[in-house]
Specification:
The protein is mainly α and 190 residues long. It is 56% helix and 10% strand. The protein has helices at 3-20, 32-43, 79-94, 104-110, 117-125, 131-155, 170-189; strands at 46-52, 60-64, 68-74. It has a 3-stranded mixed sheet with strand order 1-3-2. The longest helix is centred in the last third of the chain and has 25 residues, at 131-155.
Length: 190
């Protein structure tokens, strides 16, 4: 993906975020779970978050039943990374990306501790994402995170992670910028 295509994708995602903000007031959201609650209220679908021992090549994934969206995220990731993984999966939902509905029995089996990782990969293989959708979800998630931090700073309250820090610091800004730079570098390698 070239710089021009990335800029076009950013424009699309910024427009989507602007539309979402008509009902999703980021300055009123205190953490990722609260954001899920807002999305649940708007969509009428439950969102279930579950940390899970995922493999190194899968940080998170979204599975959909008839009434509930299940977001699994790496249990060994750092809390800020877990938050971003969840935001990425929420971005798929907010972007209206189609997802092959899952068999509820398979989902229930996912909760058994003896479940082999191959089952999780089988569920992932049924996803209909393509690299464009992945890039779109990543850009939208990053924009939500950026907007969220700006909103939290403007409100003068704690950040989305629920800590005592009053808002983004220079290191937060550097971290987000580095994350986006890494993402752009990966896109250019594709």
């Amino acid at each position: 993906m070239g710089k021009k295509e990335l800029r076009e994708l950013e424009v699309v995602c910024r427009a989507r975020l602007h539309t979402l903000e008509s009902w999703m007031r980021l300055e009123d959201v205190t953490d990722v779970r609260a954001l899920c609650d807002v999305i649940e209220t708007h969509s009428g679908r439950r969102i279930h978050l579950e940390s899970w021992p995922l493999t190194a090549d899968v940080a998170g994934f979204w599975l959909a039943s008839d009434t509930t969206d299940y977001i699994f995220y790496a249990q060994d990731a750092t809390p800020p990374h877990q938050e971003h993984i969840i935001l990425h999966e929420l971005a798929h939902i907010l972007s209206g990306h189609a997802h092959t509905p899952i068999d509820l029995k398979l989902l229930q089996n996912t909760y058994f501790p003896h479940l082999d990782h191959d089952v999780v990969h089988l569920a992932l293989s049924r996803s209909c994402y393509d690299s464009k959708m992945e890039r779109e979800a990543e850009v939208l998630a990053s924009l939500i995170e950026q907007r969220w931090r700006i909103a939290r700073l403007g409100a003068g309250s704690s950040p989305a992670t629920g800590g005592d820090d009053p808002g983004p610091t220079d290191s937060d800004t550097r971290r987000v910028r580095e994350h986006l730079d890494d993402f752009v570098a990966k896109l250019q390698d594709d």
